[in-house]
Amino acid sequence: MVKDKPGPEIGELWMNYFSAKDTISAVIPGSTFEMMINRAKLCPTFLYALPRKEGYEFFLGQWAGQELHFTSLINVQTLGENASSQLILYHYSDLKQDKDIVLMTAEMDSKFITVLEAQCLANQVQLFYAAQRHETFQLVETFNHRPAEFKHMSVIAELEQSGIGQAVTAK
Q: How does pLDDT run across 153-171, given as a tens digit for each residue?
């Protein structure tokens, strides 16, 4: 239905469709997604920090193909491999070749996570996996390949520097 439309118009249709739904969505440039997915193959897991009124709650993000599953760290620690995902980002790359866009939407457990919090986590994926600064992606590499050297406070510092989490704590 949309194959004859230009990428920006398809992206606008996608965002309009999901704007009325209780979820998040995005239109990701093809080159950005390419960088993210290639890095995800090398480093499939990362620890994300979600700002709370007092401190941060950590979420483990794990890539499975073009899906990214988020589970709160406390659930991972208590339930192990039986911990269910509280947020899943789905990336649809069917239009990447022809339109240079990748469409994203999410499935979220609204008992555990709000739309604003889901958006914060999704923004962090781009911050860490599509980082232009090598030091930013280096945190992901350290977490995956040298976990003993990983410092969770570095994630918080990067998040605070980016300003991504401010809308979550302002509510």
A: 999 999 999 888 775 655 4
